[in-house]
Design brief:
The structure is a single chain. The chain is an alpha/beta fold. The chain has two domains: 3-110 and 193-208, Nucleotidyltransferase, domain 5; 114-187, Nucleotidyltransferase, domain 5 (2-Layer Sandwich). It is built from eight helices and ten strands. It has helices spanning 3-6, 50-64, 84-101, 112-118, 155-164, 173-177, 179-182, 195-208; strands at 11-18, 23-32, 36-45, 72-78, 105-108, 124-129, 135-140, 146-153, 169-171, 186-187. The strands form two sheets. A five-stranded mixed sheet has the order 3-2-1-4-5, with helices on both faces. The radius of gyration is 19 Å and the shape is globular.
Length: 236
């Protein structure tokens, strides 16, 4: 039995997952009355293998601390924004495990887990790659709070808005990909949503034993594949 379970109500074991970016992430954290401690962590960057990677990574982090799914008290998942196919892997995993284990699942904007830990007193622009030469972005104030976003659009639009709000740096994989366009100094980390930050941002709900969140994905735009609205004639 893991340490978090032995120590009682004030230390609980929480699973964290995120699949909103090319980084497929699973982690186990202990949430106490005044701290969040990462016990195990796995992250693999592969934009085409979210479905194949996440479940094995969950098994691995549980094994790393000699825990079982029934030892979990809650699940925290990144809500995106992110591409439809990858993002839903993490959300379905969190929702399914929460239902099967009868434990709450809490959602956190994935950009918050990039922007919040990067702030050191001045506003920053956090961005992830949205493809189509666009980025998912948000601006974070000096205390790490989100002041604008999440939005999806051209990097130039995001850069202009970020400067209006006093941003002095940019962070995230999207910022690195469009560094020349953004024209802001880059912060090296975090490049992808940080599992520890996701847990920190959900910690008060975990401590309060709050009910599950709706886990509504932040797609921000319609999926590429849509159902046909009319039948096409077979004959010319």
């Amino acid at each position: 039995m893991p340490d978090g379970v032995r120590l009682g109500w004030f230390t609980v074991l929480v699973l964290v997952v995120d699949s909103s970016t090319p980084a497929v992430t699973a982690a186990l954290v202990e949430v106490t009355a005044d701290a969040v401690v990462t016990r195990a962590h796995r992250c693999t960057v592969d934009a085409r293998a979210h479905g194949e990677l996440l479940a094995p990574q969950v098994d691995t982090v549980l094994a790393d601390v000699d825990a079982r799914p029934v030892d979990l008290t809650a699940i925290v998942v990144g809500l995106g924004p992110g591409p439809f196919t990858g993002l839903r892997v993490g959300l379905v995993t969190a929702a399914t495990m929460g239902q099967v284990l009868d434990i709450p699942a809490y959602g956190v904007c994935s950009l918050d887990a990039i922007g919040h830990p990067a702030v050191t007193g001045a506003p920053v622009l956090a961005a992830s790659d949205a493809r189509r030469r666009e980025i998912y972005w948000a601006v974070y104030g000096g205390a790490g709070e989100r002041v604008v976003g999440p939005e999806v659009g051209m990097p130039t639009v995001a850069a202009d808005r970020a400067r209006e709000l006093g941003a002095t740096a940019a962070v995230g994989d999207g910022a690195h990909r469009y560094a020349e366009v953004l024209g802001l100094p880059l912060l090296a980390e975090p490049r992808y949503p940080d599992a520890h930050a996701l847990a920190v941002l959900a910690a008060e709900k975990v401590r309060a034993g709050a009910a599950s969140d709706p886990l509504t994905p932040l797609y921000l735009r319609r999926p590429d594949a849509v159902a046909a609205t009319a039948r096409k004639p077979v004959l010319p």
